[in-house]
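Predict structure. Chain length: 103.
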Amino acid sequence: MAKKYTKKTAVQVKAEIKALEAIKPKVPHHSGFGDDNYAKIDAEVAVLREDLDEDAIYSRYEGEDPDAEPPPELDCALHARRWMDGEEDEGLAEGWKPAAGIK
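Prediction complete.
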């Protein structure tokens, strides 16, 4: 039997946006791989604020060259969409705590 997902409410989405905005300054701007962590968080916030569907996410973050490596922001944006759709239980800001040095 397929798992039933419960879409996040507007209150939950607003709370998650606030949590992401609060943790962003505590996260290193760039990862050890050189990825722009702030751009990743901004992508998550954009999905939450604009309620972007997968097509809009791919249009915004995939880029022009289909053979190019997709930017890291794409995975973060898709993760935010899955969270909104109830496919992921852990909050997005919670996932940034290790990078911010928060246990």
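Summary: Residues 10-89 form one domain.
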